[in-house]
Amino acid sequence: MDNNFEIMLNPDKFGxxxxxxxNGYGSSLKxxxxxxxxxxxxxxxxxxxxxxxxxxxTKTVEIYFDDLKPEAQEHLLMxxxxxxDDENWDTVPLAVIEREVEEPYP
Length: 106
Fold this sequence. Notes:
4 strands; alpha+beta; two-stranded antiparallel sheet; two-stranded antiparallel ribbon; elongated
């Protein structure tokens, strides 16, 4: 971004809007450490404003280790020769699926 401090104080003036992916937080609310940086805005919480028609809303689903069936968990651990305690899969998603939607979602 150009001048980060000025942009954060007045994003509209510089053509930025709050990131709809992370709601302006810059990271996942599931991650209190802030390690999981938003893939859309890169952690800034802001993105460049687009034309009203060109702006696309997205819906995102994050998949965590605990979301997997026990068989899939075991397969993953065996494949990577690791244990659940050795990984940070409880705070960082294994996968993020994002799709465009027509209308905002709750």
